[in-house]
Design a protein that fits this description.
By secondary structure, this protein is α+β, with helices and mostly antiparallel strands. The chain has one domain (12-173). It has helices at residues 18-35, 150-154, 160-173, and strands at 44-49, 52-58, 64-70, 73-79, 114-115, 118-119, 123-128, 131-133. The strands form 2 sheets. A 6-stranded antiparallel sheet has the order 1-2-3-4-7-8. A two-stranded antiparallel sheet has the order 5-6. Strand 7 and strand 8 (131-133) form a beta hairpin. Helix 1 runs parallel beside helix 3 (160-173). The radius of gyration is 15 Å and the shape is globular.
Length: 177
């Protein structure tokens, strides 16, 4: 899952501000809806209710993210099912230490990712004080260039060009049945 450097838990400075991130998520979802009439096989789906917007990102292979926007508040949670910090890779099952340490109260209002009733999150960022923040997660020594999967799942929102390149490549090479 190695990619060219893009937004990730290690490069939060490359993640756009919430307004721009929401705009990119919406643009990718609209473009993808035009390419694929089956929402269950799209990478990007956006729903809005009462001023709250959620972009669900899923690669169809067990990796996903939720981008939550509520007024000035924004949270991005993600899950890489092969990550060494996955709750499923821990005994006993648990979120990786530091995941929510220092998180503002609104983070608990944002939807989370669950697999078989277990909160399954390998990365979480929130917008506070004019910047993206995260808990003090320390990655274990590993061969993973992207230990929490954030770079992989966030790559399409790195820029509009990156997103359209991704979708062009995905829909030319994928069987979206």
């Amino acid at each position: 899952m190695q990619n060219a450097e893009g937004p990730s838990s290690r490069r939060l400075d490359l993640l756009p501000e919430p307004t721009e991130l929401s705009r990119r998520c919406q643009a990718l979802a609209l473009l993808e809806a035009g390419l694929n009439s089956n929402p269950s096989t799209r990478w990007h789906n956006v729903t809005s209710t009462d001023g709250v917007r959620v972009c669900r990102v899923s690669d169809g292979s067990g990796n996903e993210a939720l981008h939550w926007f509520n007024g000035e508040d924004a949270v991005v949670r993600g899950f890489d099912h092969e990550s060494p910090i996955s709750p499923w890779a821990q005994e006993p099952m648990a979120l990786w230490p530091g995941m929510y340490e220092g998180a503002p109260a609104f983070v608990s209002s944002a939807p989370t990712i669950e697999v078989a009733g277990v909160e399954s999150v390998t990365f979480c960022f929130w917008w506070a004080d004019g910047a993206w923040r995260r808990g003090p997660v320390e990655f274990p020594p590993s061969v993973h260039a992207d230990p929490d999967g954030s770079e992989y799942i966030l790559k399409p929102i790195a820029s509009i060009d990156e997103g359209t390149d991704f979708q062009s490549s995905y829909y030319v090479t994928a069987d979206i049945g």
